[in-house]
Design goal:
By secondary structure, the protein is an alpha+beta fold. Helices cover about 35% and strands about 10% of the residues. The chain folds into 2 domains: about 400 residues, Alpha-Beta Plaits; about 80 residues, Orthogonal Bundle (nitrate reductase domain fold), CATH 1.10.3650.10. It has 27 helices and 16 strands. About 5% of the residues have low confidence.
Length: about 550
């Protein structure tokens, strides 16, 4: 057993309202600079739909993720080293700007400064890449609220095999929002695809990052990632991706997308897992077994053997305690209502989802029946195969069973709690019908509906003894500079690639670091008496306290 810690996230899709606040705040924090205009580390897709980039789930086209060979070994779907070497200067399996979308802005000056005239002035769209007038034909949110579904969303790869069932009742049947970030996988195919070895997984918390100094812009990682969550910065010539807001995580603050989520649908916590089991779990023969095989990789933080191995592996005790209180662990392991996104890619994703029950409830209400009754909900889940099959294609490699079980638990919770909220006697047969006790169901309801900030985000802080290595890692995975740097010089791999890199980390991290280093107390306890603080030294003269002050009698003796 080799115990490791992994930062993970669960999203409750029943609570997402598609407001895109998470996308906008992530954009402002991480990708609001030259070369990243088309990039969204966090995006919210309307499903069914083609997603962003367009049809990214079609791995027959994009060749992302892993595939299992006849002898039970895993290999990259895009091919091994020889194939990459042959295509290293021209990667044919990468989405184009048309698949992402060409970012644009509008000529607002025309409207703001136009003189009085007969016709109303119009702001024409201009490309943010070329600066030339452009026609808007696609964007990251093109499928939002089923816009253009007849032309685009009907081509969703996840509808394969159920097209006829969806065709006539598409808009009445179901629609939901799917927020997506990097999955920070246990078995990341992006890292295995990189010829430069620039993508790595932090051993401290499992966050997958890109070393900007090592990256050479081959873009094989873009192909290798089946979720298409690695992007190429055409200004710097480097690959960039979601960082799970590691500067915030290190000081116990949730990611920007989670912090600003209007629906409070995101949960963040630590999962302990056995690193020795990951490869075997990802190599199971049947795709339908991948969900359960990944669950078997996770370890019980209450197990004394796991605690001993975690201590031997250098995992701090408060991290093990955080894993015990982790809302992610409870949703994945205890209540079993969270599912991984596309486990058939065999990357072992660590951003899991609670599938939405709302489409089922909406269909029942449309028929005039009580949409909250557990009898109606159970019957609808059994007969309404369209959303269940679609959700299974997303979360369980097409296996309807686990999705059906999750929807039944959510339906039972909704019916059970309605009786309590209306002052009726609780019906113990409702949780029993889904294999849960009354107390367990109430606790699940509390976590999904009423959980406070510190219950949704159980994030242990980085330790003082890890600070040096973490700061070095932060420098390694720094995102290359801002526009002022890009204007100064050019390198062989794109504009700005020849300049020194910067680390645009969250301001909270600087404040926490400054508070830690200027404090009179040490992180591990005790005071800093006798230590010199160079943080506030401007580099001029001699910093205060560097040399011991002379006593007055010594000064007097010198004058004599």
């Amino acid at each position: 057993m080799r115990v490791m810690a992994q930062m993970a996230m669960v999203m409750n899709l029943d609570k997402c309202i598609g407001c895109h606040t998470c996308s906008v705040t992530c954009k402002q924090a991480w990708t609001n600079r030259a070369g990243m205009e088309y990039v969204w580390f966090n995006n919210v897709e309307t499903r069914p739909g083609l997603g962003y980039p367009r049809s990214y789930e079609d791995q027959e086209k994009w060749q992302g993720g892993w595939t299992r060979t006849a002898n039970g070994r895993l290999k990259l779907k895009a091919g091994g080293r020889l194939k990459k070497l042959l295509n290293i200067f021209s990667n044919p399996l990468m989405p184009s700007i048309q698949d992402y979308y060409e970012p644009w802005s509008y000529d607002y000056e025309t409207v703001l400064n136009a003189p009085t005239q007969k016709y109303f002035p119009v702001s024409r769209p201009y490309s943010l890449i070329s600066g030339k007038p452009t026609n808007i034909t696609w964007s990251a949110n093109w499928d939002d609220d089923l816009a253009g579904s007849g032309e685009h969303a009907a081509k969703d790869p996840m509808l394969k095999g159920i097209e006829d069932k969806v065709k006539f009742e598409f808009d009445q049947t179901f629609m939901f929002y799917l927020p997506r970030i990097c999955e920070h996988c246990l078995n990341p195919s992006c890292a295995a695809s990189c010829p430069s070895g620039a993508i790595y997984k932090r051993s401290e918390d499992g966050i997958v990052l890109v070393d900007q100094d090592t990256c050479r812009g081959w873009r094989m990682c873009v192909t290798g990632c089946p979720y298409k969550k690695i992007y190429f910065n055409h200004k710097t010539g480097k690959a960039e991706k979601c960082t799970f807001c590691y500067p915030r995580i290190e000081v116990g603050i949730p990611t920007v997308c989670a912090e600003t989520c209007v629906g409070r649908l995101r949960y963040i916590g630590i999962m302990l897992y056995d690193a020795d089991k990951v490869l075997d779990a990802a190599s199971v023969e049947d795709d339908h077994d991948l969900y359960e095989s990944q669950r078997e990789v996770f370890l019980d933080p209450y197990d004394p053997d796991v605690q001993r191995e975690a201590e031997r592996a250098g995992i701090p005790g408060d991290w093990v305690e955080a894993a015990q209180r982790s809302p992610v662990r409870r949703l994945i392991m205890d209540y079993k209502v969270a599912l991984p996104l596309h486990p058939e890619y065999r990357t072992m994703p660590m951003v899991w989802y609670i599938p939405p029950l709302s489409p089922v409830v909406d269909v029942i209400k449309d028929t005039g029946f009580d949409g909250e009754s557990h009898d109606n909900l159970f019957a609808a889940i059994e007969t309404l195969r369209i959303p269940v099959e679609y959700l299974a294609n997303l979360f369980t490699a097409g296996d309807v069973g686990p999705v059906d079980t999750v929807l039944r638990k959510l339906a039972a919770m909704r019916s059970y709690m309605r009786d309590i909220n209306l002052g009726r006697d609780p019906d113990e047969s409702i949780p029993a019908a889904v294999g849960m006790g009354e107390e367990e169901m109430y606790e699940m309801y509390r976590l999904l509906a009423l959980a406070k900030y510190d219950e949704r985000y159980v994030i242990p802080t980085a330790h003082g003894e890890q600070a040096h290595s973490l700061e070095e890692l932060a420098t390694d995975c720094a995102v290359s500079g801002y526009d002022t740097q890009l204007d100064e010089a050019s390198g062989p791999f794109g504009e700005g690639s020849g300049t020194a890199s910067m680390t645009p980390v969250a301001v909270e991290n600087f404040h926490m670091l400054q508070q830690r280093q200027t404090s009179d107390q040490l992180v591990g306890g005790g005071d800093k008496a006798g230590r010199v603080n160079l943080l506030n030294w401007d580099g001029k003269g001699t910093p205060e306290g560097l040399f011991p002050e002379r006593r007055s009698e010594d000064t007097a003796g010198d004058s004599r």
